[in-house]
Amino acid sequence: MPLIRTTSKFSQTLQPQRYTSERELQDIIEKHPELLVDENEARVALVSREFVLPSGAGRLDLLLVDETGRLSAVEVKLERNGQSRREVFAQVFDYASALAEYQVTELNENTGGGVEKALRQLLGADNPNAVEDARLNCDRMLRAGSQRVVIAVDSAPDDLVRIVRFANDHSDLDIRLVEIEKYVAKNESIFVPRLLVQGNEHEAKASEPRPIIHNLIEVVRLFTPPSGITVHGRARHYRAVRVAGWPASMHYEFLSSGDQIHPELHLESKNVMRVAPVVEGLAQTVASALPECNVQWVTPWQRVGGRLRVSMPNGAELRDSVAAMYKLIELTKQPVASSWNEAAKLDQ
């Protein structure tokens, strides 16, 4: 996808450029780890690069920590290097299990004091209490296996997106997939991140028990899927509601937020964003049918997609969330399917 660069004197169209090597992409993330997080998330800093993990798990490209003490193991891959998706994913599991063998004191020693240096960078050397709290929380999350794994790529093929999304849906692992495109102008390089798969969000305080998602489970129990629709996933905060014949990146969703369960329609890839104009146009129709709800079309979302969100009002019952999902499906399924089928015909 091109990038348009404009000034008061000229306009320039930039095309994505290939990285010279995986090391180049590693270098960029090392200098700018903020490329891997959303602007509303906790800030991150580098702990170590090319970190040798225990138990023969291999060499980790980058190890980051955020200001809450949560670690991120980063694996950098270029699509053209040809490593199989299964091999990449096996590494992800290996890294997560190997990191869980550490206590924070041992990890800090093995990284040359990298954990504490990064926390002081994030929280301030003159704020020792906050640094110590984050260090203790890091230790708790290590023991709980609550670290994040990030796969950073120049371009993400559909099968890798599918695999990462499936792993998040069906496990407690938190695996994030980020695509970082490179553009080159005369004397500058521009790097554009796209968060393709968010990952499972765990509680920052790993010492606290994970909340039992009674509301989400109860909503799924109350929901009788219409013909051709199935409910998928085991994530703590959402359930995907998939329509037969639709790509996995285009689906409905029950999203748990606070005490409410909100129905949504998600477009989670560049490919399915071709139907975005139709979904956006349906927002007013859905809002008119559900006047007690706040209906919003949100884009960009996760940097590359969009979602039609039906926010339930305070005090809404779970049956209300189910009824709102039925209405959302009733009003949008057919026009979205028609738009998708027309787009697919153009590809033939």
UniProtKB/TrEMBL annotation:
The family database entries (InterPro entries) matched by this protein are listed as: tRNA_endonuc-like_dom_sf
The molecular function terms in GO held by this entry are:
nucleic acid binding
In its UniProt entry, what is this protein called? DUF91 domain-containing protein
